[in-house]
Amino acid sequence: MSTSYQIASIPGDGIGPEVVSATIQVVEKLAKTLGTFQINFTHIPWGTNYYKEHGRYLSEDALTTLRKYDAGLFGAVGDPDVPDHISLWGLLLAIRGPLQLYANVRPVRTFPGTKCPLNTATGGIDWMLVRENSEGEYSGQGGRSHVGQPWEAATEVAIFTRVGIERIIRFAFETAQSRPRKHLTVVTKSNSMRNGMVLWDEIAASVAKDFPDVTWDKMLVDAMTVRMVWKPESIDTIVGTNLHMDILSDLAAALAGSIGIAPSSNLDPTRKNPSLFEPVHGSAFDIIGKGIANPVGTFWSAAEMLTWLGEKDASAKLMQCIENVCAAGILTPDLGGSSSTQGVVDAVCSEIEK
Ligand code: GGG
């Protein structure tokens, strides 16, 4: 008997509903064609429309609700009517932290059909970015005083814990160990930030001793941006803080050829909670409803979800079909093509059937 997975579908805002709906079509087609697993998506309407109606982004029992599922597929968050810090903290960050989805994994690879602007021997890049996803600069701590006065002050406190750093660095070493090149770069800013970032350096040196087969180096985040552009081939796996990797992963996706294809997994490596999969891109409200949103980042996120659930063959098949479609030039306008979102969906579904 094949395994049946229950997936929470949270399309969210902007183009989120378009790319999530596209992905559900493709994954359902894959499940039906292969017949090796079953998958059911349940729509959950959290997002800015829900906020406008209920005064909150998530339902009161959101975490209990999510724990009933094997995984979640998320679209995007952000709406011009609501300040970004309200929507991000109301939706995504209100899930990642409490569910302890502490490992944000972002593979970055140049695809057929995308053009890497860098001059590399392979014509592209193949990196794995690991972002600490539960603390650091996005701990939500700090405050404002003397609001509106010329001497108004605001603090944004980054909280780093030994357990939080140790677990993400260990996860990153394990990730690097599973890749052919087995190399990890630990990114910090430990010259100017002399507390939390120095703790990162110390813990990295200590955890590294458990991985003698993984080579590693450390790099300041500013220098890392230069290295990504000038020495892309010296990079394999990168780990860093919530803020640093939020920025570096957008840069990496752009260097690989497009942010529209970049996937992201919010993982609880202990598997006590369901993990959440989402494209790296945001809500892109300038193209809402035009039918041209690139669904590839969400397709790839769904492939990562299938791997996480244990459906490695199905995931590999989905990735091959996506790559074949991109190689055939069936691309949305952000990649220089003229296909619609549905055109890409139909092409990937046809590939699945072959
Ligand atoms: N699909 C991802 C999305 O909507 N991202 C919006 C965003 O601003 N994310 C920030 C983050 O990933 O921390």
UniProtKB/TrEMBL annotation:
SUPFAM superfamilies the record matches: Isocitrate/Isopropylmalate dehydrogenase-like (SSF53659)
Residue ranges occupied by any Isopropylmalate dehydrogenase-like domain in the UniProt entry: 6-348
Pfam families membership: Iso_dh (PF00180)
Cited InterPro entries: ICDH/IPMDH, IsoPropMal-DH-like_dom, TTC_DH
SMART domains per UniProt: Iso_dh (SM01329)
Entry's Gene Ontology molecular function annotations: NAD binding; oxidoreductase activity, acting on the CH-OH group of donors, NAD or NADP as acceptor
Similarity-based family: Belongs to the isocitrate and isopropylmalate dehydrogenases family.
Name of the protein in its database record: Tartrate dehydrogenase
Species of provenance: Penicillium frequentans
